[in-house]
Amino acid sequence: MKRTAPRLLAAAIIATLANQAHADVALDVIGDYEVSFEGLVQADGNWYNNDVVDLNGSSGNDGKDSEFEMRRSELVLKGKGTMFDWVIGYDAKANKWLDVNLKWKLGSNYVQVGQFKQVNSLEELSSTKNNDFISKAMVTNTFGISRRLGVTYGDGGKNWGYTANVFGRELTRNLGQGPGFGGRFYYAPIVGDGSLLHFGISAVDYDTNSDTQRWRIRPDADLATARLIDTGNILNTDRNRTFGLEAAWVGGPFKVQGEYMRTTTTRTNNTSASDWSGDSWYVSGLWNLTGETWGYKGGTPTTPLPNDPAAGMWQLGIRYDDANLNDGAIKGGDEHNITVGVNYYWHSNFKIMANYVAVSSSKFSSAAGANVSDDPNIFETRLQFFW
């Protein structure tokens, strides 16, 4: 068991309680830039009720069905100016760079250079500190592309926008690789006080790494060391092409959100093997029990602060997500999960989350000569401190 994460989080909470909490720390005005400092600390705990596969089997926990770990420790320095914005972010837990880029603002449009989140996932583009559930949906973790080095051009208004970009590898070496390009367009026919209807489409196309591609998915548990569905290595691959659809609706304290993505991995010309295709999707619903509603910015719903900071904001959520990695001779398996959760935001800096995940998966076993079901249950918690 790793005990440093809870201790570090407790120390951060105690230190902050001694002072007035704020959502971010304004440092100074340097030149034309308002410079601020932000941070995010998350500590997670997972408890597994295994079925067939030991979801924690390779973690060295002596057979224990639980895992505790610092999930993120992010430090972000930002500068906001009249013509340019810049950001430098680093995750000390994962030892990797986050957003590191410069944005040139040209009226309603902009050009951005550096490392930034790519455009093919509504959930990925939303702020990590305001995730509706502890683990992002399977479609986001599988087919969504996070941060890459590149250049993007974007334009938009209050209720519409588009981006087009080219990208390469991640800034941190030995992580995401494969140059490509992508784009996203969104439109919200309804944007008002407590009302939203949003639609979006996206596409990315990028090279596979070393002509090999592997698709595998954790069962909505970020600390799990095993995957229940897995294509294995697909050889002689050329490119991955992912198309996505997204939608969101807000009515007062209620939000419904969903995404669908389909990916095709094409083969090189020197093989007769067929291309592979798989898909994944989710639908989720969230209810702010304390009455708050959502905002809208840059094509994503934004989470509010509590109406009463001392009392906090309570949320109830439910999500159904599905993934299918079977295609032809490649039997990667299929999985569908139900997640129910409760979130509590206190003041501007603290969040407590609890999720229960019911997993239902099936994958072909060559030893059994048939599909084998594996249906574990997982209980998850998260303590979060951010400023």
From TrEMBL:
Record-annotated membrane-spanning stretches: none
UniProt xrefs under Gene3D superfamilies: Porin (2.40.160.10)
Superkingdom of this protein's organism: Bacteria
Sorted UniProt keywords: Signal
Short name of one Pfam family: Porin_O_P
Residues making up the signal peptide according to the UniProt record: 1-23
Designated name of the protein: Phosphate-selective porin OprO and OprP
Organism whose genome encodes this protein: Dokdonella immobilis
